[in-house]
Write a structure and sequence with these properties.
- The complex is a heterodimer of chains A (489) and B (95).
- Chain A is globular and about 65 Å long.
- Chain A is α/β, with parallel strands linked by helices.
- Chain A is built from 16 helices and eleven strands.
- In chain A, 39% of the residues lie in helices and 13% in strands.
- Chain B has 95 residues and is mostly helical.
- Chain B has a domain of 38 residues: Histone, subunit A (Orthogonal Bundle).
- Chain B is flat and about 55 Å long.
- Helices cover 36% and strands 4% of the residues of chain B.
- Classes of the chains: A alpha/beta (489), B mainly alpha (95).
């Protein structure tokens, strides 16, 4: 094989061997990815910022560490970071006019952890503005295109990370997932994406959207890489008060393809109206593979409150968003409308010009849900139903080790197809939202194709059940070849 | 679920997102559809159920009160839209 042509196709753990045996250097690997970015970005638009010089500098430093025998699993591995995760000295825009040119004075904890392993950061991934959206069409700068069909969306909000990893523009990326923003784009781009248990990964330095739902996680090309990145970023952080005291980690070494006796539930509520029958069939076949490997499957599991999840989410998330985004006032950082005549005019002018249509819509929805007279009927009711949904999951995980569902109701849709109808766009998160509401871990991994477009299977586990989730995913992956497919670009 | 023009104007003024008349009408009709969809929640039985604000069973998280450096002043002020000496400059609040 001509290695230089194929470096962008390698997985992190394959690369580790090559780097440690000195068959390839981090500088070569990083340059190969920068070349790939240079060649593909006109089509894909997965990056908001490419930090090429910095990346090569980090790669040289990584090569020194590797030569000294001090390599960690991610040392010298070229990665991307979603643009709502703060990187000191590198613009962090949230794909919003509001934060265009904002350069954070500090690194997010996850970025610090990657740097501690001497990973290489190639740049920042495009996203729906402030992570609000399901297609990356809400980026204030440009939409990202799906590498499998550039007329289709990559999903969102981590569309840049998913497209970059699928296309070989990065070996892995970090995204954020508030209602499916890692798993949904991972599914639509044919890669692996994981939302860990709420609190397992520090949110310090993640620009807040809905604080009780947001969680950072990996996007990678296979399950082993997912575990390696998760190992690197988990752990208690005193700077995030919701960070769990458990240290986490050790996931990569715990991977095993043995699913004998694993109890799998397939909840019927995830296979109802709006689900593409071919997607549903791909999921059933995938579960049958695990059944054939010795897992016991209940095809008729039930989580009866699932139909409430979408409404719960689209009340709670906008409510928290309307509070979190109150900080954008044009005073401390970000865009500011200097033309306005008074303080109040400046505030309105700043927010009118700085925020895009979907962000304003969510702020409006949240403000409405929290306003006097509606608080009990919407916000409080949604929080109570949140309790009901969480309990149902807890009860289900008494009977099952993991639950398996589709990640998305359909494969990737066309650019522009859902932009005029916000509710239709919201419905594309219907399978991923419940995990955020309950704070439980979920992974999406490739399990087939429908008309040439990737299908994602979602595995859900109980809180801190990452090991079971990764085990089911790894076992399936080892038994199939979907994860080795790459888009032709 | 109906939303009157007055209600939507009130919400917009609370949110301070500076909507135009056309945008107000567009958001009003879109929010009506979305809020209609939320009515499904009224069917959920939540009698005696306590609300969940956070999925993590943590409360009163404390840490040692140890002095440490805060963010670098110059780096922090570098993002200020308007700066005067070591301050963020704001518009007149009380005239």
């Amino acid at each position: 094989m001509n290695m230089a042509d194929d470096l962008h196709n390698l997985t992190v753990h394959e690369t580790r061997d090559l780097l440690d045996r000195r068959q390839v250097s981090s500088v070569e690997l990083t340059q190969a990815h920068l070349d790939r970015i240079e060649r593909l970005e006109r089509q894909l638009k997965a990056y908001v910022t490419v930090t090429d010089e910095r990346a090569l500098e980090q790669a040289r430093e990584a090569d020194v560490r590797i030569a000294a025998g001090e390599a960690y699993p991610l040392t010298g591995v070229p990665m991307q970071i979603k643009d709502n995760i703060c990187t000191r000295g590198i613009a962090t825009t949230c794909s919003s006019r509001m934060l265009e040119g904002f350069v954070p004075p500090y690194d997010a904890t996850v970025v610090k952890r990657l740097q501690a392993q001497h990973a290489v950061i190639l740049g920042k991934g495009n996203m729906d503005e402030f992570a609000m959206g399901s297609s990356t069409e809400n980026s204030a700068f440009f939409p990202t295109h799906n590498p499998w069909d550039t007329e289709r969306v990559p999903g969102g909000s981590s569309g840049g990370p998913a497209a970059a990893v699928a296309a070989g523009e990065a070996m892995a990326s970090l995204g954020s997932d508030t209602g499916g923003s890692i798993r949904q784009p991972a599914a639509l781009c044919g890669i692996v994406g994981m939302k860990p248990t709420y609190g397992l990964v520090s949110r310090y330095g993640l620009v807040a959207f809905a604080s009780s739902l947001d969680q950072i996680g990996p996007l990678t090309r296979n399950v082993t890489d997912c575990a390696l990145v998760l190992d690197a970023i988990t752990g208690h952080d005193p700077r995030d008060a919701t960070s769990l005291p458990q240290p986490g980690g050790g996931y990569a070494t715990a991977l095993t393809r043995d699913v004998t006796g694993m109890r799998i539930g397939v909840p019927k509520e995830y296979f109802v109206e709006g689900i593409d029958p071919e997607v549903a069939e791909a999921i059933r076949q995938a579960v049958a593979v695990l059944e054939g490997m010795g897992a016991s499957v209940d095809w008729n599991a039930s989580l009866p409150s699932t139909p409430y999840a979408l409404a719960v989410y689209y009340i709670i998330a906008p409510s928290e968003c309307s509070a979190n985004l109150a900080r954008y006032d044009g005073v401390k950082y970000g865009f500011s409308d200097h033309e306005a005549g008074s303080m109040w005019d400046e505030l309105e002018g700043t927010r009118r010009q700085g925020f895009g249509a979907e962000v304003k819509r969510r702020i409006m929805l949240g403000t409405y849900s929290l306003s006097s007279g509606y608080y009990d009927a919407y916000y409080l009711k949604a929080q109570k139903v949140r309790t009901v949904i969480s309990r149902e999951f807890q009860e289900a995980f008494q009977r099952y080790d993991v639950l398996i569902t589709p990640t998305t109701p359909t494969t990737a849709f066309r650019l522009g197809e859902k932009t005029e109808d916000p509710l239709q766009m919201y419905l594309s998160d219907i399978c991923t939202i419940p995990a955020n509401i309950a704070g439980i871990p979920g992974i999406s991994l490739p399990c087939g194709f429908v008309n040439g477009l990737p299908v994602g299977m979602q595995v859900l586990g109980p809180a801190l059940g990452e090991e079971a989730v990764l085990r089911a995913a790894f076992a399936y992956e080892q038994a199939t070849q979907w994860h080795t497919a790459r888009p032709e670009l | 679920m109906s939303l009157t023009p007055d209600e939507i104007r009130h919400i917009a003024s609370l949110a301070r997102v500076g909507l135009t008349a056309d945008e107000l009408e567009q958001y009003r009709s879109q929010m009506e559809v979305i809020l209609d969809n939320f009515q499904v929640l009224q069917e959920a039985d939540t009698e005696g159920v306590r609300p969940t604000g956070h999925s993590v069973p943590l409360e009163n998280v404390f840490r040692e009160d140890e002095p440490s450096n805060s963010l670098d002043k110059e780096e922090t002020l570098a993002n200020a839209p308007r700066r005067e000496d070591d301050y963020f400059r704001v518009r007149v609040v009380l005239e």
